[in-house]
Amino acid sequence: MERRKVLKLLANSLPWLVTGKALAESAQHHKLKLEQQTNILESYIAGLPYYQSNEVVDELVNEASISLRREASNPHDKNAIEIFYKNTKLGYVPKVNNVASAKLLDDKRELSAFIIDADNSTYYREVKFAVYLLEG
Q1: Domains of the chain: total
Q2: Checking CA distances to 53, which of 44, 66, 111, 121 falls within 20 to 30 Å?
Q3: pLDDT at residue 17 above 70?
């Protein structure tokens, strides 16, 4: 009887083992990819409480990929860069930090961005992100 329990446990664990291996490989790929990039900015998302961040707050974890979109038509900031997680707008790159990234995006340079610290414990959540310029 014990043998069956052990075999059943192993059979049920197989998907977790495969997933764990895939996650480890993904993390290794992510690390290699970051080694080919230059960090150009680390900052906190501006305006986070004013957008739909509540819809995805539990998904905003370290190393989550975010996307940057230029909003050149923004009447308040000609260098505005929106920050999205999946299709949910989180806020903006702060105005004091967005000039270099805006210029790179305007020049069609490839940037990648990731969450590097997410504090969801307070009403005014702070989510720190990093922006990288892809080398070569």
Answers
A1: 2
A2: 111
A3: no
